[in-house]
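Re: that chain you flagged

S.,

Sorry for the slow reply, it's been a week of failed gels. I finally had a moment to sit down with the sequence you sent. For the record, here it is as I used it:
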Amino acid sequence: MKTRYEQIVDATRIASRGSKENLGAIIALAEAENSKPAVEDSKRNLLLAIDIQNDFMEDIGSLAVPGSRGDVRRLTKWMYHNMEGLTQVICSLDCHSVEQVFHASWWIDKEGNRPEPFTMITFKDVESGRWKVANGETERSLEYLRNLEMGNKKQLCIWPYHCLEGTFGAKLESEFTKMLYFHATARGCAPQMIYKGQNPYTEMYGIIKAEYDTDGYMNQAVLDAVKEYDAIYLAGEASSHCVLASLEQILEYYKDEREITSRITLLEDCMSPIAGFEAGTMEQFKLLQEKYGIQIQKSTDVTL
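Prediction finished late last night. Pasting the structure tokens below so you have them in one place:
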């Protein structure tokens, strides 16, 4: 390409509040490339970029993921070096309000205290009165906790306020955004944005569906997109939660179609776990690899 990586991404400003996107200049550089349009790709490659948002970036995010700065650097370099082969990018974005079941505002103890971040709340905790639902939604909250435990899902964790709609923390990280729109302009394909986590009564780690909800919502558009591509690559934050849950949900849906599940590759050096959740994350990925035939590779070993 005529444009150097450093003209698009300033690696020293990844996960920085002072990053300037200047997308007009980025788009002008991309237009000058005269790249082959993505619609002409004989092999169609999809990147699922999971929650690459400021609130998950180290040093600046309220739910910072250690290692996320390096993840973005490696992912944007992979996108740059594979510009001519990367057909499409789908980005998921956490999008929350203050009043959600996994935020402290939802809960209160006998003394009127809110739970600290990373407090785990169980059905028994609420039934015994250890924690009360501050907004009166007790029955619905109990139903949620009961179904989490019955479905062998993650326990309810109280997360720091993060990705609140309209805030800096909810935005895509700026240097990733620059590469995203350089790619979109150069290849003539608009990125797709998938917002998740807006239902106040549930957690939605994965891009496809909530941990539990009464409506049984499923993002069929993403599932259909997975089927349409010859190869699907996953990256983003955090590997222990939203990347893992997204992968599990896709594999669960296509569990009887190994021809599809074997198209999926994890870019293992472009994702990191939340601190305290490191144990077992890679082990879970390897179990999925054995069961469904997915690939686990470093971005430097993958050429499109």
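What I noticed first: The radius of gyration is 20 Å.

Talk soon,
D.
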